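FAQ: What does a ligand-bound record look like?

Like this one, built around zinc ion:
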Amino acid sequence: MNHLLCPVCRSENITLDMGCQSGKYVCGNCGYVGVLVIEEEV
Ligand SMILES: [Zn+2]
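The answer part, i.e. the structure of the complex:
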């Protein structure tokens, strides 16, 4: 199982912004928005 980490603050509180057609990720911790996230295997 993989989980996603914010590349800025390494928070797991990151979600795919479904409202955005470009499919960007949004960090709920630091406010980062972008296509780049860290994918980490558990
Ligand atoms: Zn963050």
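Follow-up question: can I read anything off the structure? Yes, for example: The chain has one domain: 2-41.
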